[in-house]
Amino acid sequence: MLYEAVRELPGGKETPFVFLTARGAREDVFAGKSLGVDDYITKPISSHELLTTVRTRLRRSNELMFEQMKSAYKLTLVMLAGGIEARDQYTYKHIMRLNEYSSAMAQELGWPETRLEALEFGAILHDIGKLDINRSILEKKEPLTAEEWKEMRRHTEYGAFVLKKIDQHDPLHYLAPALPIVLYHHEAWDGSGYPEGLKGEEIPEEARLLAVVDSFDAMTSDRPYRLSLGPSRAFEEIKNRAGAQFDPKMVEVFIHCWEQGRIKKIMDELKDDVEEKDDLMDLKGMH
Ligand SMILES: [Fe+2]
């Protein structure tokens, strides 16, 4: 039958189907729907009604395709970024947790969907620039030398460079809003961060938000050069750094999420495979 033949063609699976028939019996409608027909209209029908139905179906089908492409795109980025994180000896769960922590905070702030999406890409890609950092530095167990830190800090600018390159070939400029987040996620509220030493509200809000959750996650995960803090100690540390490393407003929002139990819940759901230890080693290595 025509329906099945079209479905077999390349691209046929996405073609929306509307059955137009004189028969309105329930069994026919049911048979059509069980085949996967998108809509079913019975005669007599006005041309206006027919056009509206077709237009609606096409629009819906485009929306679905766009959503599917977006999630495939996102997954590709997560896997790519996860590969970089694996080089850095901790799993892609770090990215997933960052994503969840930052979404929780953005929801608390009442940010709209488009802003949430940019933040999500920022969270996924924040350390993409580590692709260009020497493996021996990423995996070094001893504290980094001044020279090595200089090299490590380059990952923000290199990450922004990668995103700019992608953006030049992307007519939708899909990743453009994530660029400032990637570039400025290590800036500090008091101006002591990098790459530009921006201060306070000069730093984009999204980057100020991500800085909090990135540090929290770094403190609660084992790294090559130190073991993790327990969550409560990491939480205290975040509060202590309000107004210095972090935007006090963002710390406030993080405290709200913590008090609602959202942070702990995300930690539990996306636990690393390694055992957590409650030791404090090198706090300086986190920034
Ligand atoms: Fe980073």
What labels would you give this structure?
57% helix; mainly alpha; Hypothetical protein af1432; 2 domains; 13 helices; binds fe (ii) ion; 3% strand; 287 residues; two-stranded parallel ribbon
List the helices and strands and how they pair.
Elements (H helix, E strand, L loop, with lengths): L1 H7 L9 E4 L4 H10 L3 E4 L4 H41 L5 H17 L3 H13 L9 H4 L7 H8 L1 H14 L10 H6 L20 H15 L11 H10 L7 H12 L2 H8 L18
Parallel strand pairs: 1-2
The chain binds fe (ii) ion.
Residue runs with pLDDT of under 50 for 5 or more positions: 275-287
Outline type:
elongated
Indicate how many domains the architecture comprises: 2
Number of helices: 13
Q: Assess the beta-strand content as a share of residues.
A: under 5%
Walk me through what this model shows.
This protein is mainly α. It folds into two domains: 44 residues, no CATH class; 220 residues, Hypothetical protein af1432 (Orthogonal Bundle), CATH 1.10.3210. Helix content is 57%, strand content 3%. It contains 13 helices and two strands, in the order αβαβααααααααααα. It has a two-stranded parallel sheet with strand order 1-2. Helix 4 packs across helix 12, helix 4 packs antiparallel against helix 13 and helix 10 packs antiparallel against helix 11. The longest helix is centred in the N-terminal third of the chain and has 41 residues. The radius of gyration is 25 Å and the shape is elongated.
